[in-house]
Amino acid sequence: MIKIGSLQLENWLIMAPMAGITNLPFRLMVKRMGAGLVSTELISAVGLSLNNKRSLIYLRSLPEEKPLAVQIFGTEPQTMAIAARIVIESGADLVDINMGCPVKKVSKTGAGSGLLRDLKNLEKVVSAVRQACDVPLTVKIRTGWSPDKPVACEVARIVEDCGADAITLHARFVTQKYSGRADWDMIGRVKSKVKIPVIGNGDVREPLHAIEMKAQTGCDGVMVGRAAIANPWIFRQVLQLDKGFPIETPDLTERRALIMSHFSLLSDFMGEHKAALSMRGILLRYTKGLAHSSRFREEITKIKDSESLISILDEYFAFLARLES
After folding, report:
1. If we measure between CA atoms, which residue out of 69, 86, 186, 210 comes closest to residue 136?
2. Which of 125, 148, 152, 165 has the maximum number of C-beta atoms within 10 A of its C-beta?
3. Considering only CA atoms, which of 33, 50, 282, 6 is closest in space to residue 14?
4. What is the pLDDT of residue 293?
5. Which 8-state DSSP code applies to residue 66?
6. CATH homologous superfamily of 3-242
7. Which CATH number fits domain 252-324: 3.40.50.2000, 3.40.50.1580, 1.10.1200.80, 1.10.630.10?
8. Strand 137-144 versus strand 7-8 pairing type
9. Burial (0-12, 13-18, 19+ Cβ within 10 Å), 289
10. CB 38 within 8 A of CB 15
11. Which residues in the chain show pLDDT less than 50?
């Protein structure tokens, strides 16, 4: 288990906030699979402060997913403080400041990973949010902007001095984006510099990697990102390994049930038609690696409602069952 400020998590596994991915339905899915903490997508502090409808939609939540972290991004300290108060009033159990997003439209404004290039403003932002925030506060960073400027240890000390309750390190430089290898040794270095919990992130592609990261770096928690998109079972599998049990791979029945459960949640969240269209991309991930998945992909484009989804799923999964018999 891991304790972040006053918040005690059920385990040390955390779902990474990801734009376009960690909406309410997906968060519910990974929570059911064992994630100890889930987070919203990154939300613009400016959007929240202006009562922007799209920004506020990201705050939709259900008791089943709690505890819930809400991640905000911005560059102006007082605007970030206002955003923090808004998300707390909406029911956030933890506020997370994004200082790692490498997307240019975010970083070029000085927000996200852009804050790693302006440590004075970074300090002001964390201090302002801390003063406005009566729930646990965390900060997610990268190793630095580029290999010639590794600032993770320095930033970690600043963040701790400003009163943050934990820090997450995606052990890549901003210029790497998601390429190359994550430097897990840097996670260990950050851990040695601060007393607050350190959460490691980067290159946890399969269950064993989470166990290995924790053992190698001494980090308190592990954040799982892209691996959970196609394999939401990864949280359950890591916990099984951690307890010394063999990994359980979902059979066809469980895989199909998860697909239908995800569709049901999406339908409640955005309506049946939009959910059906959204499932086209989701199904590509959930069926990756299954036999004759290319044949199935051709049918996916025909999905437009629950009836067509069920029909196409029934046909494909019946085909897979015949292959197994």
Report:
1. 69
2. 125
3. 33
4. 80
5. -
6. Aldolase class I (3.20.20.70)
7. 1.10.1200.80
8. unpaired
9. exposed
10. yes
11. none
Tokens of 72: 């905000």
Tokens of 240: 């099984």
* pLDDT tens-digit series, residues 77-136: 999 999 999 999 999 999 999 999 999 999 999 999 999 999 999 999 999 999 999 999
Based on the residue annotation, tell me whether 133 is a catalytic residue of this protein.
Answer: no
In the chain, where the domains are located: 3-242, 252-324
% of the chain beyond a pLDDT of 90 = 90
**In one letter, which amino acid is 139?**
V
Identity at 88, one-letter amino acid code: I
Residues composing the chain: 325
CB atoms within 10 A of CB 321: 13
| Residue 212 structure tokens | 């290995």
Strands (E), 197-263: 198-201, 221-224
Return the sign of the alpha-carbon dihedral for residues 206, 100, 190, 37.
negative
Bond preceding residue 246 cis, omega within 30 of 0: no
State residue 289's pLDDT score.
Answer: 82
Phi-psi region of 177 (alpha: psi -120 to 50; beta: other; left: phi over 0): left
**Contact present, 160 and 126 (Cβ < 8 Å):** no
Spot the catalytic one: 101, 133, 162, 219. Answer: 101
Contacts 24+ apart (CB under 8 A), 101-107: 101/19, 101/42, 101/73, 102/142, 102/174, 102/175, 102/177, 103/19, 106/42, 106/73, 107/174
Strands (E), the chain: 3-4, 7-8, 13-15, 38-39, 43-44, 68-73, 94-99, 137-144, 166-173, 198-201, 221-224
